[in-house]
Specification:
It is a single chain. This protein is an alpha/beta fold and 255 residues long. It has helices at 45-52, 74-80, 96-106, 111-124, 140-152, 170-185, 197-203, 221-228, 233-245, and strands at residues 2-12, 18-29, 34-38, 60-65, 68-69, 81-84, 158-162, 189-194, 206-211, 214-219. The radius of gyration is 19 Å and the shape is globular.
Length: 255
């Protein structure tokens, strides 16, 4: 459902120096699969997700989501995905129900379907107690749940999450992880970024290790353990960073 081919994105510093945020990155993600982009802060995870969601345009390469090119058919790509970023960007004076309804209508979802979907998601994400409370009075975790509902009200086949549990309490984080697993069970393709090793290890079917915009390696956790001869994902990640840098040891400051 997602095919990324040699995708590149460059940015310029104030001094004119070019930074390769994404450097000829290729990978695939299939239906009913959770794929994790795993890397430290600044590795290029968010840039990759913004490229795939058509927020940014690539400098080279292409990606096809649900049969649509991000370059040639960005509008069709956007209809095929649900994108959740770390910035909720919710309207503080509206209630969750009003916000979700508004975005559902933007996607041309009928009002009856919107009502049914809100009821289903509210039960799944434990939102019934605050559906009609203004967003300004909601906690961070509550807002994140509203953002999820807003991004999937049109029931897209592909879900893209950018660090969905960052800054959340353990109960809310567990609810969102359970929701991601539910999406996989429903046959959706899920792509999410994280720097939390345990989170990727626990739910990802395939892990894409990304560092300085490059793909270090990819595969299931079992495959990565076998190839690196390490069991702990922290150690596996450090092993591949060492290999990438051509060193026997890389300190935390060098990441």
């Amino acid at each position: 459902m997602i095919l990324v081919e040699r995708l590149c994105k460059n940015f310029l510093k104030k001094n004119g120096e070019e930074i390769k945020a994404i450097d000829e990155f290729s990978f695939t993600a299939d239906k009913g699969q959770i794929v994790s982009l795993l890397g430290v802060n600044g590795a290029g995870k968010t840039t990759m997700l913004r490229l795939l969601s058509t927020v940014l345009k690539p400098d080279a390469g292409d990606a096809v989501l649900e049969g649509h090119s991000i370059i040639k058919e960005p509008e069709k790509v956007r209809k095929s995905i649900g994108f959740l970023s770390g910035d909720t960007g919710l309207y503080g004076r509206l209630t969750p129900r009003e916000i979700i309804t508004y975005f559902g209508r933007l996607y041309d979802v009928t009002d009856n379907t919107i009502k049914r979907r809100i009821s289903e998601m509210a039960n799944l994400l434990d939102m019934n107690d605050f559906l009609d409370r203004k967003v300004d009075f909601l906690s961070t975790g509550m807002k994140q749940k509203v953002s999820i509902c807003r991004s999937i009200i049109h029931d897209p086949p592909i879900m893209i999450f950018d660090e969905p549990t960052s800054g959340l309490d353990i109960l809310t984080a567990r609810t969102i992880v359970s929701f991601i697993n539910r999406c996989r069970h429903d046959g959706k393709c899920i792509l999410f970024s994280t720097h939390i090793m345990r989170e990727a290890e626990r739910i990802a079917d395939k892990i894409e290790l990304i560092h300085q915009g490059k793909l270090l390696t990819e595969g299931s956790i079992d495959k990565l353990r076998e190839e690196s001869e390490h069991q702990d994902l922290d150690d596996i990640f450090v092993y591949y960073v060492n290999k990438f840098k051509g060193k026997t040891e890389v300190t935390a400051d060098e990441y």
